[in-house]
Amino acid sequence: MGHSITTTQWKDHSYSFADREDKIKALNTIDSGGLAYDLTLVTVANDLADRRNASRDIDDPAELNFQSSDLDKLDSKQRSM
């Protein structure tokens, strides 16, 4: 299953394939500080995880407000975990 990597890991991996000066120059032109990340899926998963974590303090199961629709915004890989 895939996983996230850091910008540094991506750059290190990319440079490991740069065996010629022209490739290294091309990689040096990339402004990796400007990469934008879509946090939509991670935000939904983190919100659900935060709610689940907070539910540890609830003694009465009737007070839990989890619904099957809580999973609707997760993708199939997130649901399988």
Could you explain how this protein is built, in words?
- This protein has about 80 residues and is an all-alpha fold.
- The protein has four helices and no strands.
- It is rod-shaped and about 65 Å long.
- The chain starts with 6 loop residues before the first helix and ends with a helix.
- The relative contact order is 0.11.
- The mean pLDDT is about 85.
Q: Quaternary state, please?
A: single chain
Class of secondary structure makeup = mainly alpha
Low-pLDDT sequence parts: none
Morphology call: rod-shaped
- The succession of helices and strands, N to C, reads HHHH
Number of helices: 4
The number of E-state strands comes to 0
Radius of gyration: 20 Å
CA-CA gap between termini: 11 Å
**How many strands, which pairing sense, and closed or not: the largest β-sheet?**
none
Overall pLDDT confidence: 85
